[in-house]
Amino acid sequence: MATFINLSYPPHSTVSSHGKHRPHHLPLSFSPNFPSQFKRDRGWGYGRVVLLRVKCLNEPSRDAVESESTSVSSGISSYSWCAGLGGLGFLETGYLTYSKFTGSDAFCPVGGGSCGDILNSSYAVVYGIPLPLIGMVAYGAAAFLALKLASKDLPFGIDESSGGLFLLGTSTAMATASAYFLYILSTQFPGASCSYCLVSVLLSFSLFLTTSKILGWQKIREEVGLQLCVAGLVFAALSNSYSATLPPPARFGEKFLPYFPTEIKASSSPLALKLATHLRSVGAKMYGAFWCSHCLEQKEMFGREAAKLLDYAECFPDGFKSGTELSKECKKVKIEGFPMWVINGKVLKGIQDFSELAKASGFEAGDFSLELAEIAKQSAADNMQP
Q: Of 386, 100, 121, which Cα lies nearest the Cα of 249?
């Protein structure tokens, strides 16, 4: 961008040795291409007006500014996506961690092996640490780092480039672990269904791809050594942890699993007998499968005698194999998982404690806490017996 500067000189003059007026002027030099104008003044000699063309410093064009602004906005938006994915993963693994430490469990899915059995298998522990807890820490770290990158407020004096590499390393480790567990799921639990596992795989791969897009594929190619190193360490750590792990006792879908009656070791308490009798009188029904460990846990809460009083429906009375249909009785209620209760038209999914069953059926017997503690104590003692 250029502009013209108007320079005018004072119209005074001096007298030369010849008696002629001489105008004072500054020794300005300019290109012949620059416009200039001379004006003769009778009384004052030559007045001079010079128009100088001055070129200003280069300024960024509006398009360049808008492009840079759009690029920064896109980067912040992408980091926000990473933070969102990490947050979802943190919530999912946080729920599974809570379930692990409290002993609660989700109901078993229909049409495959138990999701609960997979989450409670030996593959759900790495070096003695519950896998959901490790995932919760990883997702939480990724979400925190992405939020800091989006706000450009990185901790510990880390610059944006280093922060991006940390996020890349974290997402690479998570994607590698997810691929490893997907392989375990398909080979060790064929035919089994684990929605939590699949959701975690989707989130971790999405986080890795989003991070790669932010940094750019050129940067990813430059840091391929870092990625291979991280992936190798994760693979080696998981393989070493599972090297002594035996395969699950039941490979769902590999072969036919004949029906077998479950053995209940715990004895029934007076309260359990009363509650079981009441549940039967109001038409409450429990639906389950012989291979479902949580169905057995529910029966153990009642004990041997009380469990016989329950109205129980077996959904696979002829055995189980991948693709086996539910019994007509279970199809009729459109069962979604095991165990499942239907009490006064209300559906209760998963293991239910006595207080929930009493509330749903209208049974009143005061505080159940002491009774439940006694049942747990008795069940533990029975399980220790050979």
A: 121
pTM: 0.49
Q: How far is CA 247 from the centre of its chain?
A: 28
- Whether residue 287 is predicted with pLDDT greater than 90 in this model: the reply is yes
> In the predicted model, what is the mean pLDDT of the chain?
76
- What are the C-alpha distances in Å from 146 to residues 156, 165, 196, 252, 353? 15, 11, 23, 40, 41
Sign of CA dihedral 126, 129, 133, 134: negative
Q: What is the DSSP letter of 139?
A: H
* pLDDT tens-digit series, residues 110-143: 544 457 667 777 788 888 888 999 999 999 999 9
- Whether the CB-CB separation of 34 and 24 falls below 8 Å is answered with no
Pairing mode, if any, of strands 108-109 and 125-126?
unpaired
**Sign of the Cα pseudo-torsion (196, 197, 201, 202, in order):** negative
Angle, to 10 degrees, between the axis of helix 62-102 and the axis of helix 195-215?
Answer: 160
Neighbours of 117 (CB within 10 A): 22
Say which residue the tokens 């009380």 belong to: 306
